């Protein structure tokens, strides 16, 4: 039973038994993510004062210039999860391939793999706009004590056992699900503890906010263009309000609280969309569905997409159920 303002630590322990695989291992894993998030938060908050903004000088496998904070956050999450010996494998936006954490060691009884977007919204780091971290957790499919393989990571989103994000914004929050609803915890920086501030978060079924990079409008499929025109039309409770932060975590978080839809569709510029299925879309889709929202590529439920590559991209439409269904109907009509 969750209580407002209880600490994340208390919440994890009290709700451990509601988790079907409850062995304490997932609790320790969430606690490790909490710890790494605090370390990264500390650095994010002083971006600009310390030499942590700007490009790191390398590009990642997506061909993107890695920002120093991308690399810092990536290192901190991997170090924390490795040191605490809490997972058997990690995959990250900033790592070309998955990392096996001494999984070949028969003593390593860890059952979970983690996929992570260490720093989401990288284009906003230098301009003091909120950014985030996204994580997705699966039980390995290969036997414990044997080396993890790509199969342990290429699982459908519907197989996730937990997912969440951290938003480094006006306050720092950790929001996650283990398949039993979505809860949000706010960091009290004076004490250094996360407190349950947003119990049982739910997307309103309808909203009046749409979040899309309209700069790509001419490249969008006709169905998406028609939906955007629908959002802008003077009719009934429309036009909707356009809000686009350019950090998936922050746009999702706002839309979950206020009601809204986020779209990053495929386009002639990005034929498969921009966002990555495994460590951006699947975790947000799991959270959305656990919060009465919905997520798809316009046709297929995001969590039903069969992954084929670690860094594959998919079109992503996510948010208030009725708004996503309306957008999907425009996509079908335009087909
Ligand atoms: O600048 P664009 O093309 O609108 O893309 C913004 C989107 O790309 C992202 O920044 C991609 O995530 P990363 O910053 O982790 O690469 C999303 O957070 C955001 O919603
Ligand atoms: Mg991202
Ligand atoms: Mg990122």
Automatic annotation (TrEMBL):
Which keywords does the record carry?
Answer: Carbohydrate metabolism, Cytoplasm, Hydrolase, Magnesium, Metal-binding
One MF annotation (Gene Ontology) recorded for this entry: fructose 1,6-bisphosphate 1-phosphatase activity
Binding of substrate, residues: 120-123, 213, 244, 262-264, 274
Q: Which reaction does it catalyse?
A: beta-D-fructose 1,6-bisphosphate + H2O = beta-D-fructose 6-phosphate + phosphate
Q: Where in the cell is it found?
A: Cytoplasm
User: Required cofactors, per record?
Assistant: Mg(2+)
Q: Which residues form the Fructose-1-6-bisphosphatase class I N-terminal domain?
A: 7-199
Q: Where does Mg(2+) 1 bind?
A: 93, 117, 119
- Predominant subcellular localization, coarse grouping: cytoplasm
InterPro entries assigned: FBPase_C_dom, FBPase_class-1, FBPase_N, FBPtase, Fructose_bisphosphatase_AS
Q: Where in the numbering of this chain does the Fructose-1-6-bisphosphatase class 1 C-terminal domain appear?
A: 204-331
Where on the tree of life does the source sit, at the highest rank?
A: Bacteria
Q: Where does Mg(2+) 2 bind?
A: 117, 120, 280
**What Gene3D superfamilies does its record include?**
3.40.190.80, Fructose-1,6-Bisphosphatase, subunit A, domain 1
Concerning PROSITE patterns, the annotation shows: FBPASE
Subunit structure and binding partners: Homotetramer.
Record's protein name: Fructose-1,6-bisphosphatase class 1
Organism of provenance: Jejuia spongiicola
Gene it is expressed from: fbp
């Amino acid at each position: 039973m969750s209580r407002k303002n209880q600490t994340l630590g208390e919440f994890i322990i009290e709700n451990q038994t509601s988790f079907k695989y409850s062995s304490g291992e997932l609790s320790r894993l969430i606690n490790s993510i909490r710890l790494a998030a605090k370390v990264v938060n500390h650095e994010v908050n002083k971006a600009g004062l310390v030499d942590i903004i700007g490009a790191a000088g390398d590009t990642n496998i997506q061909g993107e210039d890695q920002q120093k904070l991308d690399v810092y956050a990536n290192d901190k999450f991997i170090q924390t999860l490795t040191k605490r010996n809490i997972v058997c494998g990690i995959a990250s936006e900033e790592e070309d391939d998955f990392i096996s954490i001494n999984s070949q060691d028969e003593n390593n009884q860890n059952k979970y793999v983690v996929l992570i977007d260490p720093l989401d919204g990288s284009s906003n780091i230098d301009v003091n706009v909120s950014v985030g971290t996204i994580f997705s957790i699966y039980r390995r499919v290969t036997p414990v004590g044997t080396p993890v393989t790509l199969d342990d990571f290429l699982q459908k989103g519907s197989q996730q056992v937990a997912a969440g994000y951290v938003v480094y914004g006006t306050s720092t929050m950790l929001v996650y699900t283990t398949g039993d609803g979505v809860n949000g915890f706010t960091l009290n920086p004076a004490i250094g503890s996360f407190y349950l501030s947003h119990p049982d978060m739910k997307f309103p079924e309808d909203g009046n906010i749409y979040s899309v990079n309209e700069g790509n409008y001419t490249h969008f499929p006709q169905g998406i263009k028609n939906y955007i025109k629908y959002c802008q039309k003077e009719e009934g409770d429309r036009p909707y309000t356009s809000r686009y932060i350019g950090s998936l975590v922050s746009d999702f978080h706002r839309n979950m609280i206020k009601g809204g839809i986020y779209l990053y569709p495929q386009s002639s510029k990005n034929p498969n969309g921009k966002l990555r299925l495994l460590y951006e879309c699947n975790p947000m889709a799991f959270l959305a569905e656990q919060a009465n929202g919905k997520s798809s590529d316009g046709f297929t439920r995001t969590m039903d997409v069969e992954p084929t590559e670690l860094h594959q991209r998919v079109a992503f439409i996510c948010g208030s159920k009725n708004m996503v269904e309306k957008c999907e109907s425009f996509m079908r009509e335009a087909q």
